[in-house]
Specification:
The complex is a heterodimer of chains A (about 325) and B (about 450).
Chain A: H1 16-55, H2 74-81, H3 83-116, H4 121-133, H5 136-147, H6 153-160, H7 173-202, H8 205-213, H9 218-229, H10 231-246, H11 250-255, H12 267-277, H13 281-312
Helix pairs in contact in A: 1-13, 3-4, 3-7, 3-10, 3-12, 4-7, 5-7, 7-10, 12-13
Chain B: H1 16-36, H2 41-47, E1 56-60, H3 64-81, E2 87-91, H4 96-107, E3 114-118, H5 119-127, H6 136-141, H7 151-156, E4 158-159, E5 162-163, E6 166-167, E7 169-178, H8 179-184, H9 199-214, E8 217-220, H10 227-239, E9 248-249, E10 254-255, H11 259-274, H12 284-292, E11 296-302, H13 306-310, E12 317-321, E13 331-334, E14 336-339, H14 347-362, H15 364-369, E15 373-374, H16 377-380, H17 383-386, E16 401-402, H18 415-428, H19 434-450
Parallel strand pairs in B: 1-2, 1-3, 8-11, 13-16
Antiparallel strand pairs in B: 3-14, 4-5, 6-14, 7-11, 7-12, 7-13, 7-15, 9-10
Classes of the chains: A mainly alpha (about 325), B alpha/beta (about 450).
Chain lengths: ~325, ~450
Amino acid sequence: MSAHTVGAQPAVPTTPSRDAGAAGGRQRSAWLFIAPFAFFYLCFLFGPALYMFVASFFDASIVKSGLGNFIGLENYASLVQSSAFWSSMWHTLQFTLYTVPPLVVLSFVFAVLANRMPRGQTFWRLAFFTPYILPSAAISLIWVFIYTADTGLWATVQKWFGDDTPTPVLGTPSIAMVGIAVATVWWTIGFNFILYLAGLQDIPRELYEAAAIDGATPWQQIRHLTIPLLSRTTTLVLLLQIIASLKIFDQVYLMTNGGPGTSTRTALLFITDTGFTDYRIGAAAAASFLLFLVIVTIAVIRQLVERAQQKGA
Amino acid sequence: MNSHPPTPGPSSPLSRRSLLRGGLAAGGLGLVAGTAGCGSPLAAGLAGTQLNPGTVTFWNLFGGGDGARLQTMLDEYRRQQGSADSLVAATFAWGNPYYTKVSLATLGNKPPDVAVSHLTRASNLAAAGLLEPITDEVLALAGLSADDFSQTAWEASQYEGTVYAIPMDTHPWVLFYNTDVCRAAGLLGPDGLLAPIQGVQGWEDALTAGKEASGGFGATTATVADDSNNWRFFSTLYHQRDGSTPLIDDDGLSVTMDDALATDTLATMRSWVEKGLMPATVDTPGAETLMFTGRSAFFMNGEWEVTTAQSIEGLDFGMTAFPTLYDTPAVQADSHAFILPRMERSTEQLQRAMGFVKSMLDQGITWAEGGHVPTYLPIYDSPGYRAIEPQSSYADTVDYAVYDPAAWYSGSGSNFETVVGSTVGLVQQGLTTPQAAVASIRSTLETYANTPNPL
């Protein structure tokens, strides 16, 4: 590579050996620039992940030193048979299914509407984005208050409409997750909203003017201009959203702590409970690895679908 | 390699390299400045030194009324020491999250000097090797001895023959009553206190009278958002029955619940809801509000809710032991205790920690006003405690208190309480049948029983 390198070559002719040294220097400096990140990556991501994978084959307990006894695939075998594990995986998926569609569709709708406001756009942008900058603890307090059984805001509203014994949202296994999903949509919609708004402002006005002159209705403009031109934003929003939803932890931990019973216990809650509360770090490691496999599978499927779409387009 | 950007000329006023170098130097200075004050957590973490030398750090799980009362006691300790810096206290959300923090902090070698634990949880912390033994010498540092404590609680503080906790109180599940409603319902005795209630029939009669007088309910207790409360209610009634066996035995290795008795107890609890004597879905604040505002005669919870009740203006209320509805007296209870998490301690540190414990025990009257039954005998036997009404009216419940069965997954706020309590709550709300609930409790507990013990 050295003798044929062009571009940043010094004008003075150099001997091949000195040139090789310069390239080596460049490579060294590249490594140096990567080093700080690589250090943290190895120490805090790759190292623990490797340790986790190894620990998943041991009956490791957090209160005992060392990894404990090698038990082969026993942790995996008992997890696969454990209804608690599968129900927590299902709850994570359930949360993802409840939150991703509204967070993508509604943020798009609100962005289109806010973008069309003739005045007061700043207010609307702020209104949708403000919840996003609040910490999860504040969000949880607000929504726990709203959902308080019998005396909360939502229960009071239901009573106005004649329901004397409103169902407590967070106390009922079948709808507790819906309650958390609603709170999450309100909380995080601002981020997708901003992404869409930025995408919308990149679309040249002339396109709409041309379409209007051709007699396209506003709906046709959205259908044939806005949606196709925002497809890259949609891909990004969708990916970020699915990953965020699969990582659900804070709101559930703070609003229901997995309850009532275990009906909102998500995969990450199951893992923290098993590893840190029950001290069973080996079993928790195995569960983490299974969750990792699920997330990788979903990411690969999404990649394949996108590739197929690009071929079709 | 042809995308490599041209090297900046030597004449550029501020090269990237000098900028970086300057930034590093500034950052380094900041780090030095940050670690210069030797009390900073960062410095202590880097050097592995004690966080606050000369200070007692204390972790607890007391919220609500207990928390407010504790603050007065902590302030008194600071006053005794003559320094506001003598104590750093932190309160955490109780239950599993609290015990997880205590465990992880101890494993990370940064535990507090003293922490609060339930006795039913302290045995597991001891089994995990996270606690210092409380030897006679340690007790003597604060002028205490084993004879200073009620015998039941002292025995419950031991794990394999060694004491690991200093019991502070016993906190039974009790019955609160609205005096005005009970008077209107004719439930008071000639002394103005609640007349004794006996048997399921007597209980239902009292609730019916209370419901008529209040126009709302006979009794209220949380059925949602408080799994432990559901468990306490169920455990109290179940253990009052002849032939009731512990739900789990052999340190949690076997499930020994009497399914027939459990099913019948749950069905009876549900029948009170179906008759309209108790609300189906209500949380603790809601259940309290109903009794406080005269829309219910009774309210059941731990005795610690007395502080909240006292803060309600114009509320005339009383407290008593939960009545015996079945064959033998029994109430669910636990004890708060002081523990010394395992760490390297100097004698001065240990002395300071024990001095703090002694100060808290000496302020037992303040603590007892919060509803708790003292286990420190100089307070329990004192006329001062007997004079606190209605808090001393259920002092004898300590004789028949039922603690949660021992297991690595059991104790106050544990998986065990969550599993059983949440299912009990579903029965009361009418979302599952007693039969299905007992089957579900059994199957979940069996999963835990078959899981290898991590301790």
